[in-house]
From TrEMBL:
Residues 10-135 form the Sugar 3,4-ketoisomerase QdtA cupin domain. The lineage of its organism: Bacteria, Pseudomonadati, Bacteroidota, Cytophagia, Cytophagales. It comes from Hymenobacter mucosus. Pfam families: FdtA. This is WxcM-like, C-terminal. It comes from the Bacteria.
Amino acid sequence: MPPDPALKPHLITFPTTGESGTGYIAVAEAGASIPFTTQRSYWTYFTPESIVRGRHAHYRTEQVLVAVAGRIVVLTEMPNQELQTFVLEKPNVGVYIPPYCWHTMQYSHNAVQLVLASTLYEEADYIREYAEFKRL
């Protein structure tokens, strides 16, 4: 299925409650702040600053990436060659990654990335070769 041109990477600011004296809670809810039902959650941590992760796209999976600690620089490329850079450094802000979006991430030494995904893991959903992504 070809990519939906209406779906583009964009920032999501999660509703937050609290105050500096007692701390904050940010809430991610399917159908409200998250545009899909989450089927899988995972996190990355202790990634060396010199490592670039990601380097893939998905045929079906939608994701929201959140830097719950530290800073993550996310580079995205859509099939129409639209490039965007997102700097995640607030735990109440995430970036939406639609299907057919090539993305890479680079982390600060203390970064913890939470990923909310619309599908369970399936290797066949990954577009791992950049040439294949460009062909699509």
